[in-house]
Each structure stands twice: as C-alpha cells, then as structure tokens.
Write a structure and sequence with these properties.
alpha+beta; 1 helix; 4-stranded antiparallel beta sheet
C-alpha cells in the first residue's frame, strides 16, 4: 500500500492510499485495516477523518462475458482535518 499526502488548504489534507495489484481479489478488511491503523497514528497528531472516497483502478477476473469479476487494485482518498 502506498500513501501520498496533499495539502488541501488550512488545517486540511488529502491522503491517497493505493493498493498493490496482486491479480487476485482485494481484501477489504486488509485495505481498511491499513487505513484505520494509519488514521489512529494521525489522530495522535490531532488529525481526524472528514470523508473518504474509493476509486477502483483495475477490474479482473471476468468470466465468459458475464461482466462479473473482482477488483484487483483500488485507491482510497481520505480527507483529514486538524483540530
């Protein structure tokens, strides 16, 4: 998982978490567990989550033109504010 921080005005930042592509189905518990652990550390510095948005990056595993499949890579943008 990579993290990129962007300043977004006074007392606010956006952190984009990007998962690795393992070509297998993503584990949402691992993804959001990583974000929660990072948010817990940021909370010690006074940061709080304001909002989150998910952007799917890669879809794989389609079977026989059914359109079904699974996400193999995604990103989550989290807006943090400081108190």
């Amino acid at each position: 998982m990579t993290e990129n921080e962007f300043g977004a005005g006074p007392n606010q930042m956006i952190v984009v978490y990007v998962s690795e592509d393992t070509s297998g189905e993503m584990d949402p518990l691992a993804l959001f567990g990583h974000i929660a652990a990072d948010a817990e550390q940021r909370a010690l510095a006074g940061c709080r989550i304001v909002s989150m948005a998910v952007m799917p990056l890669r879809h794989g595993g389609t079977l026989m033109n059914t359109g079904g499949g699974f996400q193999t890579k995604t990103s989550v943008a989290v807006v943090y504010t400081t108190l």
